[in-house]
Amino acid sequence: MSKTKEGGGALLGAAFLMATSAIGPGFLTQTATFTGQHGASFGFVILVSIIMSAIAQINIWRVLCVSGLRGQDVANKLLPGLGYFVSFMIVLGGLVFNIGNVGGGALGFNTLLGIPTEIGYVLAGAMAILVFVVKNAKNAMDTVAKIMGGIMIVVILVVIFVVQPPVGDALKNTFVPETGVSPLFAAILTLMGGTVGGYITFSGAHRLIDAQITGEDNMKEISKSSVTGIGIATLVRIMLFLAVLGVVSKGLISGADLFASGNPAADAFRAGAGEWGYRFAGMVLLCAAITSIIGAAYTSVSFLKTFSKSIEAHENGWIIGFIAVSTVIMLVLGQPALLLVVAGAFNGLILPITLGVCLVGGNSKKIMPQNYKHPIVLTVLGIVVVVLAAYLGIPAFIKNIAGLF
Predict the structure, then answer these.
(1) What is the pTM of this model?
(2) Which residues, 6 or more positions from 129, have their beta carbon under 8 angstroms from its beta carbon?
(3) 116 phi and psi, to 5 degrees?
(4) For residue 290, what are the contacts with CB-CB under 8 A and spacing of at least 6?
(5) Which among 46, 53, 295, 372 is least surrounded, fewest beta carbons within 10 Å?
(6) How far apart are alpha carbons 341 and 96 in whole angstroms?
(7) Does domain 5-339 have CATH number 3.40.140.10?
(8) Percent of the chain, pLDDT > 70?
(9) How far apart are CA 236 and CA 350, in angstroms?
């Protein structure tokens, strides 16, 4: 595809779609909670998760976009039926996490404007649905992701200036954590799942495939878009970490209080910047939720549409239905605990499986162009991430499944 204005918009839109899909309500809660628990040492967790996420993301985007095949199609070509299994896991996880995103949107409305959560569920779902009602939904999706991503960055930056975190201490602990490395393993696994787990790692790549930005000719732009997405998500994570660290380090709120809080990011912002800081947190939470609802719905349906011409022909309708179902379930159940346990169990295994499939696919002539050679360094580093993710994820999977019974 030629480098038209539309293509350039899709490249940046894909980066923001991936980043804002990762920056959901869970992302904000995890970052605030873990910062309260580990203090400045949480910087080390961010560093390790950035490296592992970048390896996974670059491998997957490169294989999918150069081959022009979506994740489920790569899996089915390697082993017939595997693509259906991968799609099932990702769509199930996407649905359940989207239910949580709708809940996060309601929490954002409540924090920002005091709107009751039951009304907030409906408003959050309706705002996301509006994006897919317009004529050129994918361009609208790109625009919303960029605008809301920008709002989050600006708002968190303002709070950082107010709380003035100990940047030097954070930098030191990023490379030599005071707590030691072992206590940080659980946080590393959680951040990995929340940054490139499930549907998230595929959201931007599938957007580029839809925009026909594929093939070896576009490899430079594809890599740049993937790195930009990781960079945006990382920037927000670091900024949020510093904002919360500034509050905790000054004793304005304890780590225990954040751990027990139902809205830790908002409570941290209020402790550091007063009532307007609390409202700012509501704005961040609302933007994070809406963009994550959009990303989860779009990517989940993209895993289904190649299996049915009807789904592909009515893609926007399916996405709208996906969001509507998520909203209704959240409205009816309130706290879908059982579904969250099931999704968590599956999500623990999604990354090693999907990354493993892409690594094999990247070195397969029936998947990639004949003259294509997947970089050995990316393959080796990818294998390391697969092993680590499986090592950490399989025990979590067994524990979660056992918890159901």
Answers:
(1) 0.86
(2) 320, 323, 324
(3) -55, 145
(4) 105, 124, 127, 128, 144, 148
(5) 372
(6) 10
(7) no
(8) 90
(9) 24
What pLDDT was estimated at residue 233? 83
Of 51, 243, 52, 44, the residue nearest 152 (C-alpha) = 243
CA proximity to 268, closest of 39, 64, 2: 39
Distance CA 7, CA 1 (A): 8
Q: Which of the pair, 338 or 219, is modelled with greater confidence?
A: 219
Higher pLDDT, 16 or 318: 318
Question: Distance between CA 83 and CA 307 in Å, rounded?
Answer: 10
In the chain, the amino acid numbered 194 is G
Is 2 a residue whose pLDDT tops 50?
no
Q: What secondary structure does DSSP assign to 44-71, as a single string? A: HHHHHHHHHHHHHHHHHHHHHHHHT--H
Contact status, residue 116 vs residue 110, Cβ threshold 8 Å: yes
Structure-token pair, residue 385 = 């991430």
**pLDDT confidence of residue 4:** 47
Answer whether residue 220 shows pLDDT above 60.
Answer: yes
With residue 269 as reference, give the H or E element that holds it: helix 264-302
Provide the 8-state DSSP code for 252.
S
**DSSP per position, 111-163:** HHH---HHHHHHHHHHHHHHHTTSSSHHHHHHHHHHHHHHHHHHHHHHHHHHH
Any idea what DSSP says for residue 79? S
- Orientation angle between helical segments 337-362 and 42-67, nearest 10 degrees: 60
Burial 182-194 (b: 16+ CB within 10 A, else e): eebeebbbbbbbb
Type and span of the H or E element at 228: helix 219-249
Amino acid at the residue 77: K
Nearest to 128 by CA among 303, 10, 305, 295: 295
**pLDDT confidence of 200, banded at 50, 70, 90?**
confident
